[in-house]
Predict the structure.
Amino acid sequence: MHVDADDVVVTQGTQQALDLVARVLLSPGDVVAVEDPGYRVAADLFASHGARVVPVPVDGEGIVVDRIPAGARLVYTTPSHQFPLGVTLSLGRRRQLLAHAARHGAAVVEDDYDSEFRHEPRPLDTLHCLDPTGHVIYVGTFSKSLLPSLRLGYLLCPPSLRPAVLAARQLTDGYGPPHLQAALARFIDEGLLARHVRRATRVYTERRALVLEELARLPVAVVPSAAGLHVAAHLTDDAVAAAAVVAAAAREGVELEALQPLGPGIREGLVLGFGATVTGSVRPGIRRLGRLLAGAGGSPTTPGPRRRSPASR
Ligand SMILES: Cc1ncc(COP(=O)(O)O)c(C=O)c1O
C-alpha cells in the first residue's frame, strides 16, 4: 500500500484502533454490520459504544455484501483471512463492498490482523488499496507478527477523519509507550521485522501443511484459506458436538476453539490455531483430536471426563 507516515496513527493494538473508530464515527443506535461468524471482541466493542450490531453471514467468498443493511454506518470485516473461518474476501465482493460503502455513505473497517503470514501466493489488493473514495479504515497489528503483549498496532484513515482520531487518542490514553514505538520503528527500519516475518512464515507454512495433512484423515471439512495462523474445519458428523470435543481435547492438553460461539447459526466446527505451539506437537495433538472425534462419532453425548479416551492411555 502507498501511504505516508502521516497517514498512520499508531495504536495500542487493533483493540484501541476499533475503539478510536467507534468514538469518532458512532452514535448510540447506529447500525454496525459485523461478520457472522466473526471476531466477538470487535462486536462487543461496538456494542459497548451503544451501536446496534447486526450479524451478516459469511460464505465461501467472505462477507455477503447483499445482506449488509443499507443503513449500516460501519461495516467491520476481515478480508484477508476471515476470522474465524479463514476464507478470503473475493475481488468481486471487495468491489461490491466498496460500491455499497460509497452508495450508502458507510465506513468500512478492514481488520488485517494476520495476513503477513501468507501460505499461498498472490494476495488480493486490500480494500484500502482498491478504495478510490476514502471509505476504508485499515487496521493492522503487531500482535500476530510479533507479540500480543506489545499492544502495538495502527490504523490508516482517510485524511478527513485523522484530526478526530488523533484527538480521541489524546483524550483516551495520550500517546502510548513511546520507547516501545521507537524500538519497533528501529526494528522495522533495519529490516528485522521483514526478516522475522519471512522466517516465521516458513515455519508457519510448514506447520500449517502438517495441520492440513493430519486433518485430511479426520471426519472434518477444512475451510480453504491462504493466510494466517489458524484454520477452521466443519465437523462432517452432525451427531458430534464441537463444544464437547473442545472440552475433552482441553483435558488432554490440546487447545482448540469451537466455531459456534463465534456465530451461533453456523455449522458445527473447530478452529485450530497453530501460532502458539511447536511444530513437533502438531501431529500428536491432531491425532489425539482424531481419536476423540472417533470416540464421539455417532453420539451427540459429551465425551465426559470419566470416559477414558484412547488418547489418554
Ligand atoms: C480478528 C482479529 N483481529 C485482531 C486481533 C488482534 O487484536 P489486538 O491487536 O488488539 O491484539 C485478533 C487477535 O486474535 C483477531 O483475531
The chain has a mean pLDDT of 92. The chain has two domains: 5-189, 194-312. The first strand starts at residue 8 and ends at 11. The chain has nine helices and twelve strands.
